[in-house]
Amino acid sequence: MTEDENAHLLPYARRDDFKVGRATDLSGNRRFFYRLLEILPGAASWGALIGVVLLSNYAPVVAAYFVIAFAIFWVMKTAFLSYHLRFNWKRLRHNLKIDWAKMLESFRYNHLYQIVILPFYKEPAEVVQNSLEALTKVNYDPKRIIVVLAGEERAGAEAVTLAKQMKERFGGQFADFLTTVHPKDLPGEIPGKGSNAAYAAEQVRVEILDKKGIKYTEALVSIFDIDTVLYPEYFNCLVWHFLTAKNPLKTSFQPVPVFNNNIWEVPAVARVVAMSSTFWEMVQQERPERMVTFSSHSVVFQALYEVGYWQTNMVSEDSRIFWNLLIANNGDYSVVPLSYPVSMDANAAPTFWGTIVQIYKQHRRWTYGVENLSYLLYHFYQNKKIPLGKRINIALQQAEGYWSMVTNPIMLFILGWTPIYLGGVEFHQTVLSYNLPIMIRDLLIIAMFGLVISSIISLTMIPEKPKDRSRFNYIVMAVQWVMVPATMIIFSAIPGLDAQTRLMFGKYMGFWVTPKSRKS
Amino acid sequence: MEPIIEPLSKQHRGFIFNTLLVLFVILVPALIFYAMGYRYSVIEDIPVILVTGGLYVTSDLADSAIFIDDKEITNARVFRKASYVQGLNPGLHRVSVQALGYHTWVKELWVNQQRVVEMEAFNLPEVPHLRPVTKYLAAKIPVYFVATSSLSTSTEEIDREELVPIFSTATSTIAYQILSDKVATSTLETNEEFILLEKLFAERSSTTAKLKEQEKEIKETEEGTFGFATASVEMPAVVATSVATTAGIKEEEIATSTVIADKMMLYKEGDDVWAQALGSGRQVPYYFCSNLVATTTSSYQYEIEEFVLDNDEEGLFLEDKGNTLATTGERSFVNNGCRTDIKIDRQNREVLDFQFFPTSNNLVLLLREDGLFVTEIDDRSWQNTQPVYYGESLEMVIYRGGIFIKDGEYIFEIITALENNQ
Hints:
The complex is a heterodimer.
Chain A: H1 3-6, H2 28-58, H3 60-97, H4 100-103, E1 113-119, H5 125-136, E2 145-152, H6 157-170, E3 176-182, H7 193-212, E4 219-223, E5 229-230, H8 234-244, E6 251-258, H9 268-285, E7 297-300, H10 301-306, H11 317-328, E8 334-343, H12 352-367, H13 371-382, H14 388-413, H15 418-422, H16 424-428, H17 431-461, H18 472-479, H19 484-504
Parallel strand pairs in A: 1-2, 1-4, 2-3, 6-8
Antiparallel strand pairs in A: 4-7, 5-8, 6-7
Chain B: H1 10-36, E1 38-43, E2 46-51, E3 53-58, E4 65-68, E5 71-72, E6 77-79, E7 82-88, E8 91-98, E9 105-111, E10 116-120, E11 129-133, E12 136-138, E13 141-146, H2 148-151, H3 157-163, E14 171-172, E15 177-180, E16 189-190, H4 192-223, E17 240-244, E18 250-254, E19 258-261, E20 264-269, E21 272-277, H5 286-289, E22 300-303, E23 324-327, E24 334-335, E25 338-339, E26 341-344, E27 351-357, E28 360-368, E29 371-376, E30 383-390, E31 395-399, E32 402-407, E33 410-415
Parallel strand pairs in B: 3-10, 11-14, 13-15
Antiparallel strand pairs in B: 1-2, 3-7, 4-5, 4-8, 6-7, 8-9, 11-33, 12-13, 12-16, 17-18, 18-19, 19-20, 20-21, 21-26, 22-23, 23-30, 24-25, 27-28, 28-29, 29-30, 31-32, 32-33
């Protein structure tokens, strides 16, 4: 890009390495450094797991001490996170009852536009239609809503046709209804949501904002998955938070993704995994200093424009955009939790095993967000204008998060028993070796008490059961949480380790589109 | 209505975090010390920290009661059929496992600080339970033939036992018929199992006879015409026969009176039977590597009732005249702190045959001149010996995990576990 083309970018965002996607995008020492950072997360995770095994073999007593301490840590962590979850649950329920329009009465906000970008690929018409219908029902002036249905050229003519049909059907109800077709095989791009959304955002700027003279600071961009169904007060809630934020132009806004669209149709394992993701986001909403944007989120157009929109050359664009914004703004950027839900689809395929595979792939893509750790560490090293304390704090938080997500479930539920199996004859005769499994089991039972809280909360968050479902399904909904130890390993730790290992070996992942479907 | 817009305040979260952190710092050392065997106690108003040990007792009897130092253990951690008791003061502890209708098993072992002593109990029925195997069956029911004159009297139960002597001191596990010896056998089914077992017994007898010949030769060679008292003896040729058991343990009988099962071997040396551990590391049973209770240098023997506390409390400790406890008081060959061989005490009786107990390599079936007995290899403090079936000139065959005895003309299977522990 030329200097003129870059003029709108923040100074740091003009660097040629600002939008690095992988080590191969760089050269020389920078490439080598970035490659080391890509290796780091996988090496740390594998090192910990192998270390526990080796420790169990060569120093089983020390390994037993570690396992006991770790199990106690897990109980404390579960209690800590459950406390946050419960508080956010109360906040969520409260925020759902609030009349946000009334909250806005004392504010001037009619000048604000809502740009809703809906990237889609080959999703069925019902899915697209549901999302657009929900948009027509939100409690917000539809003439202040600009809808962008962002299709992909590589999806073929059917997608183009679908977009046209949706425009015909819904176009008149909004201020604008723009359909875009993201060209395929653009140089330097990875096909996916990020590149599609970036293309769509630029089209909106040129075709609508500039033509209509809409200020970039008065346009809030919400990027949603195509299956996202909005609750009626979403935009009012968003606007209220925007107008009351300390620094609204340096803030992203994060709702809570709930996967309620098809919750009664999917297998129990899909429900548990989906709700676990929701709960994790709810916990994070109570720890805003650790929050990173995830999936559906909102941000003012100006902020996006200053960093050149979402990155087009990597997978986890939803969280990367936050790091772009944080680093480009020299650390002066934050996320405000809305504690307000948006509803999406739980991952499901026509067959049970298909669902398992899909969930695994989706979570592997999500946990591939570890590529952001390399990115932020790299730029934290480069950008000395970000306060050192903040850089260290964030780096440690993020590193711990990716490491613990992968190692903790495996260490707890599997490796906790390795001292017993590998400890040798001498260790096997000690009281410690006999008490170890008893103690771990008892501590895990205490930790599992948190599942009771999850179960109760989940029952209050699901929609009414369909009439053709028996009440027995509520019992299933409550009891299904016993699967958590297994889902934590199979759909969190293992895909996370898979993703980190791929990154470690330079087997970069592409964007995998989660298939969406609806039972008619 | 004001929204609860703010997340948890940093102070609030900090308070929760610090509280849990303090809890963590307290719990980690406390639980680690507890797991290692440390216990807080108050002795004579003085708080003390005791360093305790544990016992791990396995038993095949689901309804058995475990006593440690004559107190029944009710809060043991049960792993399948094992019980783990912790918090024991270091020192000598007596463990007994008992159940109604079964012989009592007793051990006295030293518990060390922070160490768990393992032991495996076994309890055989006090009254032998036999499954008769007869040559003929009537509608699948075993048939015994007796002289017609014997049948002329009443056929009440007690008379039936007299007619079939093996059931005078044992119980049959299935119904059987008694018929006159005048009944034509052509009307009955031939029992294939009996035919097979007869063959096995015949083979066994032949092998045993050969072994005795070989042992005699070895003995004569040892004594020798050249007076070489320590002359090396060439072992006779090995003849291997595989015998499969229901436990899947493959036993090889080598014609030098040796039985091998997994990593254990039984062999005869002179008149004594020895057990040898063939494996290494964790494959060697724990009792080969544990410290023995100090014993005298000569063999001695106890009747178990000498260890029974005279106690009026019903069921506290069953008297058991059948089980005998014996120890040789000797230490056998030592290898890297573990012994490799343990002598099986035969209580000065001649051993006619020996095998591993079908479901346990830690137990030995000894066919002695006075009957069939089970003796444990674990000789820490002593070896429990429990009778299976009394008799003289018995023959024994292990077939598909079953113990078959030939007592005169009678062949039967010994059932060592009662149904539903009755």
